[in-house]
Amino acid sequence: MPKQKSHSGAKKRFKVTKSGAVKFARPNRGHFLAKKSQDRKRKLRRGAYLSGKQAANIRKMINA
Question: Domain range holding 42?
Fold first, then answer.
C-alpha cells in the first residue's frame, strides 16, 4: 500500500513545536484592517496553539 501524502495546506498554516504543540497564526489579519481597533490587531499578531483532538488531527495531516 502506498504512503499517505502530507496535507500541503496544513503544512503552510501550522507548525509543530518541539514539545508537540500545534502553533497557528490568528485569522482576520489579511484585509479590512482600518475598521479593526489597534488593540484587536495587536492581539491578532500573537499566534495561538491548538489542543486536544484538533491538534491531533493537524499533527496527523502534517506527518502523514
Answer: 8-63
Q: Quick one: DSSP state of residue 35?
A: T
Instruction: Copy the grid coordinates of residue 33.
Output: 484592517
Q: How far apart are CA 34 and CA 51, in angstroms?
A: 32
Q: What percent of the chain has pLDDT over 90?
A: 92
Count of domains observed in the chain: 1
Sheet holding 48-50, edge to edge: 14-16, 22-24, 48-50
Average pLDDT over all residues of the chain = 95
- CATH (domain of 25): 4.10.410.60
